Every structure is written in structure tokens, then in C-alpha cells.
Request: fold
Amino acid sequence: MNIKKGMSEKNKFIIILVVVLLVGILIGWCLPRRGGVPKYLSKNLVSRPTNNLRGLVTAVDKQSLKFSVKQPSNGQVATIIKTAEIDLATGIYSVSPRVASSTPDAYQEKLTDIRNQLKLAVQAKDAKRVTLLKDQLNAIAIAKSTDKNAQARALSEKLKSLPIGSLERQEAELAFLELTSAFKYTKITLAEIKSGETVQVWAKDDISTKDSFVATRIEIRR
Reply:
């Protein structure tokens, strides 16, 4: 009996020791190390070179936009105000989730028609027709993707040759973004941006350590 009791107390001690060690490891993982930033926060901070930043708009004037970002500063998490200067080449867009068009194009109409036929074939348990319709869906999807990629490449090459700041270049950039993104892009002016909105700003070079820079593109998430 004494042996069993001793073993039980020993097991309890081992369990308590393991729990204490795990808690200590967890605390050490969360706390700053050597002037660093807590790991659970670092993924949301500006801590490495980047040509784009996301933050909140704090002020807007005729030629620039100020926005706040979080980044490490002297071992702490600080709110830094960045200034994005605007020039003729800066594209400014409102970005929102894309919704289904009320006037579907020929591709969407064809997809809908084949899917309706496929549904009927499944209900009728017509395996041969189900296979045929699935092959048709795959074929038009591949054709659409190939055409889309070709258009994107053509627009990308066109952008390289168009004068910076030209209306034609801005229209080509908007078409490229619309074609390659899952979001809806709408061209807006700086004056339409409001404080408190979520913004993502791009520049030509690393802006992680710059307080002011010229923006190549500004996206307002709405």
C-alpha cells in the first residue's frame, strides 16, 4: 500500500512539473525576446522589406494620403503614420467583392445551360450523358482560362510600352486588375477617400522604413 501511495504521489509531482514547464514555455514564446516583438503579433506588423502596406486612412489632402500602420519600434509595437504622395502615375481604386452580373455574358449563360442539363442527367441517372456534360464544362472552363491568360499577358506587355501618367495606361492597368482579380475595381479620386477607411498602398521600392514616399497604386477596401 505504501509503495502504491508513493508512486501515486510521484506521478502527481511529474504531472505538475510538466504543466509548469509548458506554461513557462508558452509565456516565453509570447513575451518579447532581446527587444523583439511578441510572436503572436509579429505577423501583422511591418517588420521586413515590402513595397506595399495596409493600414487605416488618417488624413487626405489634394496631393497626399496619410495612413497608420503597426510596426516594431524599440522593442515595442508602435503606430506609425506614413504619407503616400500622389502623382500623375498613381492609380487610385475602390476595391469591393465582385457580385454576379444582372446581365450575364455568353460564357456564363453557356455554363448555366450545361449545368442545368447536367442536373437533369444526374436525376435521370444517365451516366453517359453526365460524363459528356462534365467534359463540356471542363472544356469551356479551360478555353476561358486560356483566353483570360492570353488577355492578361497582352495587357501586361501593353502597360510596359505606355507612357507613365497617361490616361491610356491607367485604363490598361484598370483592365488588367479587373481581369486578374476576384474583386471589383472602380477608379476613384483622392477626394473620395475618407478617414478611417482600410487602405493598401504600393510603391516602386521598399517602404517599410520610409515615412513618406510616392505611391504607384492606392486601393481602398470597401
Summary: The CA atoms of residues 95 and 222 lie 6 Å apart.
